[in-house]
């Protein structure tokens, strides 16, 4: 029991069913680490449904898949692990067959090491028809790295768990493997409990007379004025043309990202002719309505997304052009934005790296930081939380972060992680998404879902995760040409997707004033979403009411707020 609780989730209380030596955990373990450890941590959930997860019974439950050999070894600390060697194919590895049940979500983890160097090692789930990638890690020799991932079972089937390294010269070392199933109801309960834990705080009010005695029976009315969690929506130039669009937006959202208006091809269509008229007007509208802006973007690493005139520049001329661009846009909006997407999608593309050298992106972050040092600098990428996208895996994202921060002078940058939640029309792999957030959350950097789809599952998963600090949807009304994810029709009436968003906006804050009655000691204890509030207190014996404002944040200590009533 002690060994299990050491690895148990820090955020949710554990609910255990003990039967002999089998342990089932209904809570979710959000813990992860980006460190490479001398000895691995114990298997999460006691291994879950894996047979012999810590190899305490030699090779029981495990077989060799493909060519090669597997053998048990023991570390100096007495830790048993399995080594796969003499491999000739990337998928040559140890294997265990398990039964996945339709509708369940499976959290996977294992500790990985290799015989030399640094290599990517992936976990795959092999069915009769396909190979499903469940996660990956960049493993090293001499220490153990945590591979964390997951899979959602769309139908019941047997799968083989395999480990892959495309470098067949290295031996794969595996230890402390876990595969824990959760029902959809359990998964939803993780979200609900986590939301109460990370998005709310306890507040105590004490209502007292002028003589300091408790005022039993006082009516305490609490009204939330503003939510503390950044939940926003994309905005385009059409907002300058339509008061209906303006009213629709400002009544719902206080955070935004401009879709194209700040991009290089939007502000300098012709070389040397900069035009900020549209983004300037959008910034003005946002300020007037208390809407915070994420700057999107300074550069886009996709060669197809450059201004046409940029594509024909020599490397020397491109270097001059990017210097002018970054100085222009960042200086113009310095101190007016909450974030910059400095380089967009530079795991999938490398236009500037190919033209200007491997450190091109790191140099851009350095320059942006020098120009606007108090603003968060985001790396914005798609495919990281989807599963199956090798280029943008959490492991590769983390590697790119390290490269940026290791560039001289960049260690002080307020770097942040931007994850596009574009899942297409398929069923999202929420198990993989959550594990990806766990991994990147272990970096300690703030995470935003920057182009989230309106699928309720995605938004709820993001909002409930401890590492996620904000969400901005790339969505809007059809009248503003948001055709892929419309939230409102041409008359600004909600679409079904808009109904989902409005439902969540109401669910994640206190929309109506709440009334409570002070107890015999004058106390009122409440659990409140983080945000700004007014509290009004009245009593039948009082000739007047008292109103005061207060703010609840995750850092607010659980203190008592005294409210003095004059009778």
Within the largest sheet, what's the order of strands? 15-16-17-18-19-20-21-22
SS element count, helices: 12
Number of strands: 29
Structural class assignment: alpha/beta
Characterize the biggest β-sheet. 8 strands, parallel, barrel
Radius of gyration: 27 Å
Distance between the termini: 57 Å
- Indicate the overall shape: globular
SS strand fraction:
25-35%
Helix percent band? 10-25%
Rounded average pLDDT: 92
Low-pLDDT segments, ≥5 res: 1-25
Family: Belongs to the glycosyl hydrolase 10 (cellulase F) family.
Signal peptide: 1-27
Keywords: Carbohydrate metabolism, Hydrolase, Polysaccharide degradation, Repeat, Signal
InterPro entries: CenC_carb-bd, Galactose-bd-like_sf, GH, GH10, GH10_dom
Q: How would you describe this structure in keywords?
A:
disordered N terminus, 12 helices, 22% helix, globular, 567 residues, 8-stranded parallel beta barrel, 5-stranded antiparallel beta sheet, alpha/beta
What does this structure look like?
This protein has 567 residues and is α/β, with parallel strands linked by helices. Helices cover 22% and strands 34% of the residues. The protein is built from twelve helices and 29 strands. The protein has an eight-stranded parallel barrel, surrounded by five helices. The relative contact order is 0.13. Pfam families: CBM_4_9, Glyco_hydro_10.
């Amino acid at each position: 029991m002690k060994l299990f609780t050491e690895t148990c989730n820090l955020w949710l209380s554990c609910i255990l069913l003990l039967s002999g030596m089998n342990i089932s955990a209904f809570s979710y373990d959000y813990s992860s680490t980006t460190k490479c450890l001398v000895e691995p941590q114990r298997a999460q959930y006691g291994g879950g449904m894996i047979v012999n997860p810590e190899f305490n019974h030699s090779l029981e439950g495990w077989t060799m898949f493909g060519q090669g050999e597997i053998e048990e070894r023991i570390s100096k600390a007495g830790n048993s692990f399995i080594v796969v060697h003499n491999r000739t194919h990337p998928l040559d590895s140890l294997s265990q067959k398990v039964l996945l049940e339709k509708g369940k979500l499976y959290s996977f983890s294992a500790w990985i090491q290799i015989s030399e160097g640094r290599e990517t090692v992936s976990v795959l789930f092999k069915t009769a028809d396909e190979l499903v990638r469940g996660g990956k890690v960049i493993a090293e020799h001499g220490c153990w790295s945590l591979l964390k991932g997951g899979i959602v079972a769309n139908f019941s089937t047997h799968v083989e768990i395999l480990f892959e390294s495309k470098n067949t010269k290295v031996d794969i070392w595996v230890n402390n493997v876990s595969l824990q199933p959760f029902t959809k109801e359990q998964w939803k309960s993780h979200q609900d409990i986590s939301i109460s834990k990370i998005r709310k705080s306890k507040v105590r009010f004490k209502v007292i007379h002028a003589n300091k005695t408790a005022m039993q029976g006082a009516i305490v009315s609490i009204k939330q004025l503003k939510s503390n969690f950044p939940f926003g929506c994309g905005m385009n130039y059409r907002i300058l043309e339509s008061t209906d669009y303006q009213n629709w937006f400002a009544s719902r959202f206080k955070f935004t990202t401009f879709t194209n208006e700040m991009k290089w091809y939007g502000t300098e269509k012709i070389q040397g002719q900069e035009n900020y008229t549209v983004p300037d007007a959008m910034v003005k509208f946002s300020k007037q309505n208390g809407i915070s802006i994420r700057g999107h973007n300074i550069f886009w690493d996709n060669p197809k997304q450059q201004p046409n005139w940029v594509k024909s520049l020599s490397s020397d001329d491109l270097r001059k052009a990017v210097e002018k661009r970054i100085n222009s846009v960042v200086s113009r909006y310095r101190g007016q934005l909450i974030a910059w997407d400095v380089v967009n999608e530079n795991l999938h593309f490398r236009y500037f790296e190919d033209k200007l050298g491997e450190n091109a992106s790191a140099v851009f972050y350095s320059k942006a930081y020098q120009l606007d040092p108090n603003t968060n600098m985001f790396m914005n990428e798609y495919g990281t939380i989807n599963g199956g996208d090798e280029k943008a895996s959490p492991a590769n994202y983390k590697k790119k972060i390290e490269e940026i921060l290791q560039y001289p002078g960049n260690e002080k940058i307020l770097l942040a992680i931007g994850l596009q939640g574009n899942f297409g029309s398929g069923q999202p792999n929420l198990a993989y998404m959550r594990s990806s957030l766990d991994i990147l959350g272990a970096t300690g950097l703030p995470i935003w879902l920057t182009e989230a789809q309106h699928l309720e599952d995605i938004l709820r998963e993001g909002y409930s995760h401890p590492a996620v600090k904000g969400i901005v949807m790339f969505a809007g009304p059809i009248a503003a040409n948001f055709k892929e994810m419309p939230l409102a029709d041409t008359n600004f009436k909600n679409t079904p997707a808009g109904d989902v968003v409005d439902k969540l906006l109401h669910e994640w804050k206190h929309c109506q004033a709440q009334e409570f009655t002070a107890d015999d000691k004058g106390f009122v204890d409440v659990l409140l979403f983080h945000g700004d509030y007014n509290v009004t207190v009245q009593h039948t014996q009082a000739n007047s009411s008292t109103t005061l404002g207060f703010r609840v944040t995750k850092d607010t200590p659980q203190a008592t707020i005294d409210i003095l009533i004059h009778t």
